[in-house]
């Protein structure tokens, strides 16, 4: 059956356009129920006799949730107790439009055969389709459509029972919209709120805790008062229409809200469309219920109300509804006040499930509790649960439902339990969830895309590739590396020049566009490296076997080959698909030993020496051009083979071979970037590194001046020269500390599509190169897969496809890759923190450290040997510190106690222990040993009379 609707609309040029819309209706869309004898369906999804024990609905029934129920109560719908659910097409489409995450979760439930979720295309069924009435709002129309489908299902199932013995199956509408529910009940339908339905279920009391407490959005009534104080705690958020108008006129700015980890009363808003602009927000009222990574609208404060960031380290330890806050600094009266603003509305909430623990309530048998997220940037969340006793000492997951103006904390609900606090597997799961790292096993659809084994190279493969198997190619990687994606070669040519090759695993031969494997790799974005495990971007068959360039095994590669002079000047560059056979898979240490062994002159060793000599020339050129050499401390853990607990750790040692490999990978990436940009000027995937705004360097300049060193930051070249010259006699670690601080001044490097930015923005500041991309690690970075595909099209080795040449889709992919890359970095650091805590458990260790930052109530100390930072609180968190011997001098950034003065870069000796009493988690605690301050410092550890063995010396 065909329904058509004709209307006219006015065009921009004033013309009139006749529009005809056709809508096809069908009679062969089945109900999906096994209890139905009227629909000739092969595999019904809904059970014939749905069983659920309920005091409200004590009869066989199916559920039809409305759109808001799906959007807000997915944690309930996803529970194993909820089965036999009919998802209407109307609901599914609206959910897809409003929340991609919820839509994906809904699809997962529909694909789970045990859940019996059936998607009914009601808008194309002749008896459930209904047209929108004149003057009817979109919301009222959708509600009516859902009621029509519910009524049809009840009638259809009653009229088409399979036989007389089959029990009558009814359909229950779940809606928290009072008007919709009342209309449904007047029409004779069974309609309940989700809360009524869930609370009536028997045998599932924990499901009540998963109910979202707010469905219809947060209240904006101006008369809402705080229960305890009778005051409104936060300003009202402006409506979206007013925000959009204000942003368009320039009155408001739109940006991403980034909460501070060091002070819960401070944040910055990164203004969209301006990489260098950041607006400072301070205080409860000005933060106005924004949560980290929300997209917000802000209003600039008058210049005389601008604030300066507090020098305090402040963590929220309150549990009441008061919003009293310590003195964080006066308004602009000092030269270091920065542009400040206040949040006037939230444009998009980027809430997700959060991991953490319950804070015990002081009231016995209380049901209202505070949840403490593991991520310090997230505020505490108030939840209701009847399982508080069993959840003590457990990691749990909680979702935010809303943040009313009368509550200091957002309100949320319990989702699930993860495991015991401190358990390594549980903590690993927490850090993966907190950093949104996809880590579920690969689906069968993905595994079906893999090549069959045993795999081998055929004559057909050799016919379309260069055969480089006889060239002395080798790989150089960290110890234990199994996903080897790059190898090198060096051969002297008869004309006196050198042939140098970088050979990269040809992953795109196995990962074809738009397959399940390709989509999964694109979603994961990159491989994530934790201290004790690796979360692969692609299945292990590819990452550690068929694509890995293992020694003495034939593999497919994508090769970048240069002809160079002995002075490392490039004569020519070519790219080709190839077949290689690596002669050796070496570690950095093994390669260095081969280079240093004068008695070795085999082709691989000679090649390594040649590569090393060329790399030194290339590196000098980069540095002369202004490339930065920054610093960070990396540690490697040695784990027990059975328990997988850390038993030793060492600081990673950098050798010449590390630099050798890095130089040729950089050169390959630059060469490929030039090639793909020349052939695809509007859709090349490149990587840029923006120059930091001058204000980013304030802390570095101040740090240098504290020791009488001037740091120039006008250009990367000036900064590089300043850092090279920044030395202090008798303080060899000073330069490294300055470079560590410099690293923190940098902007994040980003993937981007060339057609979305002007060429002047392509520059990579850190590498001082006008163009750059990632080509050399396709096993562990999806960006490199896209670059391989572009380069293959450039040399006619593969065909293009539409998405590859669509700059808007390419930029959307870049946005995901930037997010995944950032989260992988954070997850790796969190894993180091976790393993550091495990390593120091039951130990008391003393070690040398350096003061990195001086705060109003604390000093932050870097312990180089172990590669971590810790905070020594000198005063209480409100900064008053009447009982503290330390006095803070903001002008010279120092803390003084008697004759002891602590300043940036000062050497200290600290005592490191693991504090197990903290409610949130075990954490490292550092205390001052030297310089000694009577009544404050702790005495050195005396192990001479202890039964405990002395602390093991750690390798560096």
From TrEMBL:
<feature type="domain" description="RNB">
    <location>
        <begin position="465"/>
        <end position="797"/>
    </location>
</feature>
<dbReference type="InterPro" id="IPR012340">
    <property type="entry name" value="NA-bd_OB-fold"/>
</dbReference>
<keyword id="KW-0464">Manganese</keyword>
<dbReference type="GO" id="GO:0006364">
    <property type="term" value="P:rRNA processing"/>
</dbReference>
<dbReference type="GO" id="GO:0000177">
    <property type="term" value="C:cytoplasmic exosome (RNase complex)"/>
</dbReference>
<dbReference type="GO" id="GO:0016075">
    <property type="term" value="P:rRNA catabolic process"/>
</dbReference>
<dbReference type="InterPro" id="IPR033771">
    <property type="entry name" value="Rrp44_CSD1"/>
</dbReference>
<dbReference type="GO" id="GO:0004519">
    <property type="term" value="F:endonuclease activity"/>
</dbReference>
<dbReference type="GO" id="GO:0000176">
    <property type="term" value="C:nuclear exosome (RNase complex)"/>
</dbReference>
<dbReference type="GO" id="GO:0071034">
    <property type="term" value="P:CUT catabolic process"/>
</dbReference>
<dbReference type="GO" id="GO:0000175">
    <property type="term" value="F:3'-5'-RNA exonuclease activity"/>
</dbReference>
<keyword id="KW-0460">Magnesium</keyword>
<dbReference type="Pfam" id="PF17216">
    <property type="entry name" value="Rrp44_CSD1"/>
</dbReference>
<feature type="region of interest" description="Disordered">
    <location>
        <begin position="314"/>
        <end position="339"/>
    </location>
</feature>
<protein>
    <recommendedName>
        <fullName>Exosome complex exonuclease RRP44</fullName>
    </recommendedName>
</protein>
<dbReference type="InterPro" id="IPR050180">
    <property type="entry name" value="RNR_Ribonuclease"/>
</dbReference>
<dbReference type="InterPro" id="IPR033770">
    <property type="entry name" value="RRP44_S1"/>
</dbReference>
<dbReference type="Pfam" id="PF00773">
    <property type="entry name" value="RNB"/>
</dbReference>
<dbReference type="GO" id="GO:0005730">
    <property type="term" value="C:nucleolus"/>
</dbReference>
<keyword id="KW-0597">Phosphoprotein</keyword>
<keyword id="KW-0269">Exonuclease</keyword>
<feature type="domain" description="PIN">
    <location>
        <begin position="61"/>
        <end position="182"/>
    </location>
</feature>
<keyword id="KW-0255">Endonuclease</keyword>
<dbReference type="Pfam" id="PF13638">
    <property type="entry name" value="PIN_4"/>
</dbReference>
<comment type="similarity">
    <text>Belongs to the RNR ribonuclease family.</text>
</comment>
<dbReference type="InterPro" id="IPR029060">
    <property type="entry name" value="PIN-like_dom_sf"/>
</dbReference>
<keyword id="KW-0963">Cytoplasm</keyword>
<keyword id="KW-0694">RNA-binding</keyword>
<dbReference type="InterPro" id="IPR001900">
    <property type="entry name" value="RNase_II/R"/>
</dbReference>
<keyword id="KW-0698">rRNA processing</keyword>
<dbReference type="GO" id="GO:0005654">
    <property type="term" value="C:nucleoplasm"/>
</dbReference>
<dbReference type="Pfam" id="PF17215">
    <property type="entry name" value="Rrp44_S1"/>
</dbReference>
<keyword id="KW-0539">Nucleus</keyword>
<dbReference type="GO" id="GO:0071031">
    <property type="term" value="P:nuclear mRNA surveillance of mRNA 3'-end processing"/>
</dbReference>
<keyword id="KW-0540">Nuclease</keyword>
<dbReference type="Pfam" id="PF17849">
    <property type="entry name" value="OB_Dis3"/>
</dbReference>
<dbReference type="InterPro" id="IPR041505">
    <property type="entry name" value="Dis3_CSD2"/>
</dbReference>
<comment type="subunit">
    <text>Component of the RNA exosome complex; within the complex interacts with EXOSC4, EXOSC7 and EXOSC9 of the exosome core complex (Exo-9). The catalytically inactive RNA exosome core complex (Exo-9) associates with the catalytic subunit EXOSC10/RRP6. Exo-9 may associate with DIS3 to form the nucleolar exosome complex, or DIS3L to form the cytoplasmic exosome complex. Exo-9 is formed by a hexameric base ring consisting of the heterodimers EXOSC4-EXOSC9, EXOSC5-EXOSC8 and EXOSC6-EXOSC7, and a cap ring consisting of EXOSC1, EXOSC2 and EXOSC3; DIS3 associates with the base ring of Exo-9.</text>
</comment>
<dbReference type="GO" id="GO:0003723">
    <property type="term" value="F:RNA binding"/>
</dbReference>
<dbReference type="InterPro" id="IPR002716">
    <property type="entry name" value="PIN_dom"/>
</dbReference>
<dbReference type="InterPro" id="IPR022966">
    <property type="entry name" value="RNase_II/R_CS"/>
</dbReference>
<keyword id="KW-0007">Acetylation</keyword>
């Amino acid at each position: 059956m065909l329904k058509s609707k004709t209307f006219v609309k006015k065009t921009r040029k004033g013309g009139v356009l006749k529009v005809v819309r056709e809508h096809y209706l069908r009679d062969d869309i089945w109900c999906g129920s096994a209890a139905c004898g009227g629909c000739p369906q092969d595999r019904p999804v809904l059970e014939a006799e749905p069983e659920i024990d309920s005091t409200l609905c004590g009869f066989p029934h199916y559920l039809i949730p409305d759109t808001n129920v799906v959007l807000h109560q997915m944690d309930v719908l996803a529970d194993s107790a909820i089965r036999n659910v009919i998802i209407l097409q109307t609901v599914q489409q609206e959910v897809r439009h409003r929340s991609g995450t919820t839509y994906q979760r809904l699809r997962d439930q529909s694909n789970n055969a045990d859940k019996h979720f059936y998607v009914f295309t009601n808008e194309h069924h002749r008896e459930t389709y209904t047209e929108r009435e004149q003057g009817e709002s979109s919301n009222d129309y959708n509600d009516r459509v859902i009621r029509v489908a519910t009524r049809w299902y009840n009638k259809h199932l009653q009229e088409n029972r399979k036989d007389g013995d089959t029990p009558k199956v009814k359909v229950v509408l779940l809606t928290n919209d009072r008007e919709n529910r009342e209309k449904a009940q007047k029409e004779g339908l069974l309609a309940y709120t989700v809360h009524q339905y869930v609370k009536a279920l028997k045998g599932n009391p924990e499901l009540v805790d998963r109910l979202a407490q707010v469905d219809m959005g947060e209240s904006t009534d101006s008369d809402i008062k705080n229960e305890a104080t009778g005051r409104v705690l936060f300003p009202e958020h402006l409506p979206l229409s007013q925000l959009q108008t204000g942003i368009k006129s320039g009155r408001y700015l739109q940006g991403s809200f980034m909460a501070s980890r060091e002070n819960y009363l401070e944040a910055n808003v990164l203004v969209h469309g301006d990489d260098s602009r950041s607006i400072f927000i301070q205080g409860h009222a000005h933060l106005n219920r924004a949560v980290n990574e929300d997209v917000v609208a802000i209003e600039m404060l008058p210049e005389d109300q601008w604030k300066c960031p507090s020098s305090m380290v402040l963590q929220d330890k309150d549990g009441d509804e008061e919003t009293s806050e310590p003195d964080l600094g006066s308004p602009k009266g000092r030269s270091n006040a920065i542009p400040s603003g206040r949040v006037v509305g939230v444009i998009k909430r980027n809430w997700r499930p959060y991991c953490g623990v319950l804070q015990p309530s002081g009231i016995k048998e209380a049901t209202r509790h505070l949840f403490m997220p593991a991520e310090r940037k997230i505020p505490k969340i108030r939840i209701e649960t009847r399982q508080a006793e069993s959840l003590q000492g457990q990691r749990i997951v909680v979702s935010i439902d809303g943040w009313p103006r009368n509550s200091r904390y957002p309100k949320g609900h319990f989702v699930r339990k993860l495991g015991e606090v401190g358990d390594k597997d549980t903590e690993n799961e927490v850090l993966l969830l907190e950093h949104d790292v996809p880590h579920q096993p690969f689906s069968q659809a993905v595994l079906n895309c893999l090549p069959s084994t045993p795999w081998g190279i055929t004559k057909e493969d050799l016919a379309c590739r260069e055969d480089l198997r006889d060239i002395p190619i080798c790989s150089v990687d960290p110890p234990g590396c199994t996903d080897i994606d790059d190898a090198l070669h060096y051969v002297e040519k008869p004309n006196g020049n050198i042939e140098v090759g970088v050979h990269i695993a040809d992953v795109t031969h196995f990962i074809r566009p738009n397959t399940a494997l390709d989509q999964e790799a694109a979603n994961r974005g990159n491989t994530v490296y934790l201290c004790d495990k690796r979360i692969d971007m692609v299945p292990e068959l590819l990452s550690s076997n068929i694509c890995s360039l293992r020694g003495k095994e034939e593999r497919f590669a994508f090769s970048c080959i240069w002809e160079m002079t002995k002075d490392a000047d490039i004569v020519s560059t070519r790219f080709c698909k190839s077949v290689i056979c690596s002669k050796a898979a070496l570690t950095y240490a093994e390669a260095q030993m081969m280079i240093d062994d004068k008695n070795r002159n085999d082709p691989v060793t000679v090649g390594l020496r040649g590569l090393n000599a060329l790399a030194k020339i290339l590196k000098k050129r980069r540095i002369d051009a202004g490339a930065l050499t920054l610093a960070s401390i990396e540690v490697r853990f040695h784990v027990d083979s059975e328990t997988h607990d850390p038993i030793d750790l060492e600081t990673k040692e950098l050798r010449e071979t590390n630099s050798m490999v890095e130089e040729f990978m950089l050169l390959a990436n630059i060469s490929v970037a030039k090639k793909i940009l020349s052939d695809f000027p509007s859709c090349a995937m490149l990587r840029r590194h923006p120059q930091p705004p001058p204000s980013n360097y304030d802390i570095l300049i101040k740090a240098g001046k504290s020791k009488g060193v001037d740091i120039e930051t006008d250009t990367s070249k000036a900064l590089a020269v300043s850092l090279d010259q920044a030395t202090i006699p008798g303080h060899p670690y000073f330069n490294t500390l300055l470079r560590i601080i410099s690293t923190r001044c940098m902007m994040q490097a980003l993937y981007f599509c060339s057609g979305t930015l002007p060429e002047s923005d392509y520059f990579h500041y850190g590498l001082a190169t006008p163009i750059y991309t990632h080509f050399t690690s396709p096993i562990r970075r999806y960006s490199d897969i896209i670059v391989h595909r572009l380069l293959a099209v450039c040399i006619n080795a593969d065909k293009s496809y539409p998405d590859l040449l669509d700059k808007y889709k390419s930029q959307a992919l870049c946005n995901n890759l930037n997010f995944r890359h950032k989260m992988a970095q954070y997850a790796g650091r969190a894993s180091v923190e976790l393993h550091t805590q495990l390593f120091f458990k039951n130990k008391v260790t003393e070690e040398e450290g350096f003061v990195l930052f001086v705060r109003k109530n604390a000093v932050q100390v870097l312990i180089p040997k172990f590669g971590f930072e810790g905070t020594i609180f000198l005063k209480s968190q409100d900064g008053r510190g009447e009982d503290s011997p330390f006095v803070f001098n903001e002008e010279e950034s120092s803390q003084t106690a008697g004759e002891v003065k602590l300043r940036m870069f000062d050497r200290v000796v600290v005592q490191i222990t693991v504090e197990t009493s903290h409610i949130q988690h075990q954490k490292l605690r550092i205390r001052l040993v030297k310089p000694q301050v009577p009544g404050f410092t702790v005495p050195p550890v005396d192990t001479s009379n202890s039964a405990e063995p002395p602390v093991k010396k750690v390798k560096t």
